[in-house]
C-alpha cells in the first residue's frame, strides 16, 4: 500500500455563504501537520505581575524557557528569536541563547548585475536584550539555568496593539488554516476570507492574530504542498478502494446475506461502492418505514463522500441499514446510491426518507423514490442559518433567527407563506439565494407542510445526537476505507449480540388503557404514550352535534383540536396528526377515548413497529406462508401473553428475562445446526426482547 505522510482528514459538508456547495469543517479529526507552525502560547498574555527572568532562574527544558521568555517579551512590547546553541557529546545541547528580535545586524547583500532586488530595511539594530541558558544535570535530572539576562533595549518598545503584529506572534492556528483553505477552494478572494473569519469570531476588522498578507502567503505555500501530494493521494485512494472491494467480496463469502454493489470508470477504477450486512437487511424488514440518509462527511484525503442509511428500532435505538462511498455529490452519484440501497432491500421503498438540504440529493430522491415522502430535517437547517445570513444581516441576525424558528412551527401553510413574505421583506432578503432555496423546498422541512408525515419519532433531539455520536465516532477511529466496513460490521454484531436489561414500566395514571399499552409496547414507545396519557388529564373534551369532539387544555395554553371518533370501526383521528407522524396516539385522542370509557386501545393504534414482539421475531419477505399461517400467529399470541404476565411485577419480569434468554440461545444454536431441507429458506433472527 502507498505510504503518504498526510493523515486522513474528514470534513462535514455545508453550503458556503457564496451559495456553492462546499465543505465547512464542523468536525476536526487527525489533520496534517502544518509546516512552519510553532506552539507559542500567545492567545492569553501573561498576567500583570509576571516575574521577569533573572540569573539563576530554573526551567525544566529549553522549550519551557523559550515559551516563558516569549510571553514576557510580548507583554513588554518586543519578540525574541533563538540565536546560538552549543553541543557536547555527553550532554547534547547544553547552552541556548535567546535574543531580542532586533539583536545583531543584517549582513550586507551583494546585488548581481542586472538583477532587481527589493530594497527592504532590516529591523535589526544591535539590541543587546537577551537571555542565555545553560543545562546542568542535578541528581540525574536535566535542568536549565539562566546564566545571563538583560532587558536593556536600544529601540522603542511597542504597544499591545502593535506588538501583536510582529511576525513571531502572527500565527494562523490550525482551525483557521483549514477554514482559509476551504474558503479559498470555494473561490473566495483573500480580503473576503479575512472578512468572513472576523465575522465568525465576532471581532472588529483588523483584530485577527494575523494579517491579510499572512493569509496570502499561507495559501501559496499550501498549494505547493497540495500539488506535490496529489499524485500520491490519487494512488492511495485507488489502493484503498481496491482493498475495500476485496473486503466486501470476503464478507460475501462468509455471509450469503451480505450485499454490496460497485461502479467503475473507463479505466476500471472504483467510483462508488455501497454495502449492507445481512442483519441490516433483516432489520429493514421490520423498521424500514423511515430512513435517514446522511451524506455530510467527506474525506479530504481520498476525495470521497461517506454516506450512511440509518433508522430507528422499536427500542428507540439507532439502526444502520447500509453504507456507501461516493466519488462526488452529484445527482448521478446520489441516484446510484439510492438504487443500490433499494436493490439491497429487495425493492421495498421506505414511507419517508430524511436527508440533508442538498439540491443534488433532492433531485435524486425525486427520481428514484417518487412515492416516498422526502423530509429535510430542521436539525440540519437551523445550524446553517448563521453561516448563511450572519454576513448579510450583521447585528440583525439574532432577530432574524428568532423569526425564522417561529415560522418553522406554524400551523397552516397559508399563515406560513404570509409571514415568510413579511420576514423576507422586513430583512431585505428578496434576492438572497439561500432564502430562495429554502422557500423552494418548504414542503420538505416546514412543519405546516410535513405535519402528519410518518417519522417514527426520529425527529427528537436524543435520536439526532445518537446519529451525530455514531458518525463522529466512526469517522474519528478510521484511518482507511476498509476500516469503515469492518467497524460497521462490529457495531452491528454488537447490537445483535447484546441485550438491554428488561425495564420495569411503572404506571402513572393507573388507567386500564395505560396498563394495556404497557403489556404491548416496548418501554421506548410506552414512555411516549404514557406522557401523552398524563397530559390528557389536563384537557377537556366537548362533544359536538355531528359526533366529533373539541379538545381544549384547561388553561388554554395551546389551541383547540378537533377529534373524530368512529366507534363502529374503532377509528379515531385528531387534527394535530401526532399519530400519523409518530405512530403514538396523542393526548387529544386519548382524552376522547377516556371520555368514551374505553379500557383498551384499539389494536390498529398499537403499531407492529412499536410492539415488544417485533424485537423477537423478524421475518424476511421470503418466509414460508404455510408455516407463517400455522404457527407464527400462535407464537405471537404466546409471546404477547407471556409479556403481559411478566410485566406485572419486577420478580416476574426478571424471571422471564433470565429463563427466556437461556432458552432462546439454546434454540438458536440448535436450529443453526439443523440442515436446510426446504427449497424456500426461512430466515429467522431470534433474540431476546431488546435485540435490535
TrEMBL record:
Show which residues constitute the signal peptide: none
List each copy of the SWIM-type domain by range. Answer: 562-597
Compartments annotated for it: namely: Nucleus
Presence of keyword Zinc-finger: yes
Q: Which GO terms describe its biological process?
A: regulation of DNA-templated transcription
GO CC annotations on file: nucleus
Under Gene Ontology molecular function, one entry of this record is: zinc ion binding
User: InterPro entries of this UniProt entry?
Assistant: FAR1_DNA_bnd_dom (IPR004330), FHY3/FAR1 (IPR031052), HTH_FAR1-11-like (IPR058778), MULE_transposase_dom (IPR018289), Znf_PMZ (IPR006564), Znf_SWIM (IPR007527)
Q: Per its UniProt entry, which superkingdom is the organism in?
A: Eukaryota
User: Which keywords does the record carry?
Assistant: Metal-binding, Nucleus, Zinc, Zinc-finger
Which PROSITE patterns does the entry mention? Answer: ZF_SWIM (PS50966)
What task does this protein carry out? Answer: Putative transcription activator involved in regulating light control of development.
Which family would the database say this protein is a member of? Belongs to the FHY3/FAR1 family.
What name is this protein filed under? Answer: Protein FAR1-RELATED SEQUENCE
Q: Which organism is it from?
A: Sesamum alatum
Amino acid at each position: 500500500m502507498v505510504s503518504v505522510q498526510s493523515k486522513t482528514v474528514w470534513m462535514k459538508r455545508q453550503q458556503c455563504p457564496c451559495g456553492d456547495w462546499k465543505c465547512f469543517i464542523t468536525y476536526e479529526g487527525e489533520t496534517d501537520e502544518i509546516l512552519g507552525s510553532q506552539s507559542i502560547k500567545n492567545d492569553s498574555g501573561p498576567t500583570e505581575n509576571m516575574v521577569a527572568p533573572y540569573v539563576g532562574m530554573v526551567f525544566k527544558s529549553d522549550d519551557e524557557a523559550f515559551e516563558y521568555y516569549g510571553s514576557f517579551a510580548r507583554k513588554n512590547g518586543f519578540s525574541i528569536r533563538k540565536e546560538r546553541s552549543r553541543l557536547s557529546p555527553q550532554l547534547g545541547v547544553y547552552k541556548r541563547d535567546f535574543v531580542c528580535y532586533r539583536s545583531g545586524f543584517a549582513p550586507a547583500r551583494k546585488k548581481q548585475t542586472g538583477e532587481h532586488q527589493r530594497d527592504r530595511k532590516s529591523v535589526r539594530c544591535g539590541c543587546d536584550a537577551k537571555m542565555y541558558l545553560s543545562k546542568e544535570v542535578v541528581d540525574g535530572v536535566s535542568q536549565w539555568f539562566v546564566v545571563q539576562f538583560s532587558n536593556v533595549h536600544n529601540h522603542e518598545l511597542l504597544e499591545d496593539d502593535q506588538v501583536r503584529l510582529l511576525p513571531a506572534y502572527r500565527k494562523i492556528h490550525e482551525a483557521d488554516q483549514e477554514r482559509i483553505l476551504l474558503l479559498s477552494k470555494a473561490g473566495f478572494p483573500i480580503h473576503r476570507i479575512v472578512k468572513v473569519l472576523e465575522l465568525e469570531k465576532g471581532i472588529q476588522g483588523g483584530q485577527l492574530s494575523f494579517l491579510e498578507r499572512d493569509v496570502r502567503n499561507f495559501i501559496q505555500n499550501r498549494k505547493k504542498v497540495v500539488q506535490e501530494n496529489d499524485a500520491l493521494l490519487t494512488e492511495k485512494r485507488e489502493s484503498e478502494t481496491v482493498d475495500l472491494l476485496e473486503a466486501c467480496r470476503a464478507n460475501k463469502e462468509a455471509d450469503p446475506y451480505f450485499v454490496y454493489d460497485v461502479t467503475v470508470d473507463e479505466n476500471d477504477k472504483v467510483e462508488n461502492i455501497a454495502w449492507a450486512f445481512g442483519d441490516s437487511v433483516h432489520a429493514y424488514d421490520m423498521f424500514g418505514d423511515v430512513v435517514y440518509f446522511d451524506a455530510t462527511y467527506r474525506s479530504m484525503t481520498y476525495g470521497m463522500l461517506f454516506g450512511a442509511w440509518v433508522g430507528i428500532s422499536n427500542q428507540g435505538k439507532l439502526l444502520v441499514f447500509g453504507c456507501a462511498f461516493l466519488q462526488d455529490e452529484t445527482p448521478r452519484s446520489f441516484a446510484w446510491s439510492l438504487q443500490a440501497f433499494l436493490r439491497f432491500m429487495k425493492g421495498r421503498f421506505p414511507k419517508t426518507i430524511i436527508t440533508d438540504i442538498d439540491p443534488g440529493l433532492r433531485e435524486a430522491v425525486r427520481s428514484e423514490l417518487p412515492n416516498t415522502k422526502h423530509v429535510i430535517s430542521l436539525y440540519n437547517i437551523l445550524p446553517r442559518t448563521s453561516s448563511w445570513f450572519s454576513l448579510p444581516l450583521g447585528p440583525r441576525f439574532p432577530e432574524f433567527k428568532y423569526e425564522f424558528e417561529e415560522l418553522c412551527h406554524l400551523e397552516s401553510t397559508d399563515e406560513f407563506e404570509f409571514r415568510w413574505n413579511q420576514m423576507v421583506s422586513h430583512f431585505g432578503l428578496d434576492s438572497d439565494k439561500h432564502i430562495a432555496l429554502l422557500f423552494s423546498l418548504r414542503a420538505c422541512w416546514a412543519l405546516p407542510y410535513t405535519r402528519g408525515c410518518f417519522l417514527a419519532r426520529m425527529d427528537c433531539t436524543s435520536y439526532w445526537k445518537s446519529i451525530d455520536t455514531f458518525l463522529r465516532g466512526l469517522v474519528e477511529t478510521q484511518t482507511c476505507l476498509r476500516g469503515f466496513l469492518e467497524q460497521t460490521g462490529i457495531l452491528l454484531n454488537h447490537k445483535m449480540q447484546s441485550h438491554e436489561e428488561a425495564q420495569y414500566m411503572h404506571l402513572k395514571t393507573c388507567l386500564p388503557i395505560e396498563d394495556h399499552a404497557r403489556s404491548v409496547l416496548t418501554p421506548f414507545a410506552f414512555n411516549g404514550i404514557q406522557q401523552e396519557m398524563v397530559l390528557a388529564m389536563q384537557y377537556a373534551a366537548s362533544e359536538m352535534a355531528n359526533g366529533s369532539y373539541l379538545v381544549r387544555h384547561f388553561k388554554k395554553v395551546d389551541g383547540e383540536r378537533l377529534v373524530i371518533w368512529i366507534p363502529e370501526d374503532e377509528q379515531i383521528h385528531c387534527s394535530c396528526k401526532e399519530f400519523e407522524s409518530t405512530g403514538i396516539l396523542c393526548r387529544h385522542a386519548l382524552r376522547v377515548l377516556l371520555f368514551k370509557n374505553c379500557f383498551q386501545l384499539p389494536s390498529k393504534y398499537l403499531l407492529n413497529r412499536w410492539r415488544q414482539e417485533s424485537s423477537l421475531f423478524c421475518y424476511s419477505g421470503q418466509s414460508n406462508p404455510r408455516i407463517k399461517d400455522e404457527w407464527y400467529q400462535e407464537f405471537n399470541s404466546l409471546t404477547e401473553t407471556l409479556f403481559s404476565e411478566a410485566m406485572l411485577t419486577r420478580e416476574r419480569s426478571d424471571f422471564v428475562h433470565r429463563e427466556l434468554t437461556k432458552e432462546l440461545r439454546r434454540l438458536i444454536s440448535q436450529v443453526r445446526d439443523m440442515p436446510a431441507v426446504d427449497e424456500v429458506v426461512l430466515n429467522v433472527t431470534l433474540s431476546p426482547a431488546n435485540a435490535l
